[in-house]
């Protein structure tokens, strides 16, 4: 007779799997995909590495589930921002503003999601990620065109171009993300003064990007659509 897990055993395994994914998200934000080894994730989750393989066959499988977990969170944030805007153009701007702001706030995590070299299966998930954002924007473009707020255009093509352009524009700032204290490559021997200086520099950079890069991307988006940016004379 085949063994059947009792409800208590299944509940324990489900809780352990959730703890693993939460630990992996934290590691991804600190170290990127390179630091999300099976051993590191297991250690962060407080379980044996062998136990991790009860939930994920290999790092590629773990990475896919991790990617989907984080992407779902980002899509939810964008949809929440959309709900607070009235017109299609405002909603499109909200997508770009929310995406860029969140990316610059968690640079290492966003770098991992968008451009960090990873397994081929993760690259496949990135396509799904970009298409999800494309579809959100395309829906709003179609509504704006139908309402006469934007000139005639292919909503899907325009949305795809915007997603690509925004991602490329963010690649540079995200690639310069400072190393976190939990990064396996960080130098634990740095003095507190140097850490304070690095933190201050990071804060200044983040503020500068939030006040320059994000508004510029929103302005670019509105102009690319054929609409009117509020800063236009």
Protein architecture, described:
- This protein is an all-alpha fold and 233 residues long.
- Helices cover 73% and strands 0% of the residues.
- It is built from nine helices and no strands.
- The chain has helices spanning 7-31, 38-45, 49-52, 59-82, 88-105, 107-114, 120-146, 155-175, 192-225.
- Helix 5 (88-105) runs antiparallel to helix 7 (120-146) and helix 5 runs antiparallel to helix 9 (192-225).
- 30% of the residues are buried.
Summarize the structure.
Helix content is 73%, strand content 0%. The protein has 233 residues and is mainly α.
Question: How would you summarize the topology of this molecule?
Answer:
Layout lengths: L6 H25 L6 H8 L3 H4 L6 H24 L5 H18 L1 H8 L5 H27 L8 H21 L16 H34 L8
Helix pairs in contact: 1-2, 1-6, 4-5, 4-7, 5-6, 5-7, 5-8, 5-9, 6-8, 7-8, 8-9
The percent range for helix content is: over 70%
Q: Structural class per helix/strand content?
A: mainly alpha
- Overall morphology: elongated
Mean pLDDT: 83
Report Rg: 21 Å
How far from one another are the termini? 77 Å
Largest sheet geometry: none
**Poorly predicted ranges:** 179-198
Strand segment count: 0
Q: Write the element-wise H/E pattern from the N-terminal end onward.
A: HHHHHHHHH
Hey, roughly how much beta strand do the residues contain? under 5%
**Tally of helical segments:** 9
